[in-house]
Design goal:
The chain has two domains: 112 residues, translation initiation factor eif-2b, domain 1 (Four Helix Bundle (Hemerythrin (Met), subunit A), Up-down Bundle), CATH 1.20.120.420; 211 residues, Translation initiation factor eif-2b, domain 2 (Rossmann fold), CATH 3.40.50. 38% of the residues lie in helices and 17% in strands. The structure holds 5-S-methyl-1-O-phosphono-5-thio-D-ribulose. The site of 5-S-methyl-1-O-phosphono-5-thio-D-ribulose (MRU) has 18 residues, from helix 2, helix 6 and strand 9.
Length: 340
């Protein structure tokens, strides 16, 4: 499918993985060119590339660079798989290429096929979910689940993009998303690039606007969804879901098939990444907490399935009660190899 999107997070050409350095946005748009699997692992670890589907695709191309650099598939899978624990897409991307490579196939063709399926599924999410927002156009989102997080289209932003293309007066409330500001730095940047009206709000302002009647719906992406529909996503998502329920607002979760982990029966089995204290104790490189104060910094939380109004999947809009059936009927090539 030719790209019509103004934002593309990464691409492979000339034997190198090109990616937008997401740490530098919105100030500067810097494109990095990576030629070694070690560089890809470091880019994932440091959130130079981030967002569940995007790190899955980056890792898939990391496997390609490993093959070209004479590394073993075992070494590359272990290195890339040790970068971030929560997003299951990372492991699906690695295993998809490893399975082909270990059987003597072409890792590059496998990685390109994987990227195309992710982009196509995000587009399908957009088409499947758009009508939900035509009559509920003022939408709150948390973190960045746009093109930067998925290569193109996004998950949570895809239905909003499609609805806007159909003429809906979409307005996006963008949670800033402490501590790394994926909302104010990245989601707002994507929306600004496309001219989609939006306002950045402090993380703790969502409840105020919901209660004031200025929000029609909430939509987020996901890093891993357990078999029962519990959703791991950026820290703070759980609070938005609870406050949405309190205010009788629908709470939607948009995700490609690679984000569903049928091997975890509930969210309790999902590993949650805990990142460095400095991300909380400092702001833009300056210490804001007293010296000697400690911090905790879980990067994700788990929202119980009972708060999810519906999942927006490539196969359509699915209520939590229908999730098991939808997962059974997803395409064979969307199931992953399963070594995680
Ligand atoms: O730590 P990050 O920035 O990688 O976290 C990303 C998120 O939590 C996104 O909401 C999630 O990956 C969905 S991306 C389509």
């Amino acid at each position: 499918m030719p790209s019509t999107m103004p934002v593309r997070a990464l691409w492979y050409s000339g034997g190198r993985l090109h990616l937008i350095d997401q740490r530098k946005l919105p100030g500067r748009k810097v494109i990095l060119q990576l030629s070694k699997v070690e560089q890809v692992a470091e880019a994932i670890r440091t959130l130079t590339v981030r967002g569940a589907p995007a790190i899955g695709v980056a890792a898939a191309f990391g496997m390609v660079l490993a093959a070209r650099g004479g590394r073993s598939s075992r070494f590359a899978a272990k290195l890339l798989g040790s970068t971030r624990p929560t997003a299951v897409d990372l492991f699906v991307g690695i295993d998809t290429v490893r399975g082909v490579w270990d059987r003597g196939g072409d890792p590059l063709a496998a990685a390109e096929g994987y990227r195309e399926r992710i982009v196509e599924q995000c587009h399908q999410i957009g088409e499947a979910g758009a009508s939900l927002f035509e009559r509920r156009p003022r939408v709150l989102t948390h973190c960045n689940a746009g093109a930067l997080a998925t290569v193109e289209w996004g998950t949570s932003l895809a239905p909003l993009r499609v609805a806007r293309g159909r003429g809906a007066p979409i307005f996006v409330w963008v949670d800033e998303t402490r501590p790394l500001l994926q909302g104010s730095r990245l989601t707002a940047w994507e929306l600004r690039e496309e001219g989609i009206p939006h306002a950045v709000i402090a993380d703790n302002a969502g409840g105020y606007f919901m209660r004031a009647g200025e929000v029609d719906a909430v939509i987020v992406g996901a890093d891993r969804i357990a078999r029962n529909g519990d959703v791991a996503n950026k820290i703070g998502t759980y609070e938005k879901a609870v406050v949405a329920r309190e205010n009788h607002l629908p709470f939607y979760v948009a995700a490609p098939w690679s984000t569903f982990d049928v091997r975890r029966s509930t969210g309790r089995a999902i590993p949650v990444e805990e990142r460095a204290e400095g991300e909380v104790l400092e702001f833009a490189g300056h210490r804001t907490a007293p010296s000697g104060s400690r911090a905790r910094n879980p990067a994700f939380d788990v929202t119980p399935a009972r708060y999810v109004t519906a999942f927006i999947t490539p196969g359509g809009v699915v209520r939590p009660a229908g999730l098991a059936r939808a997962l059974r009927s997803r395409p064979e090539d969307a199931r992953g190899q399963g070594s995680w």
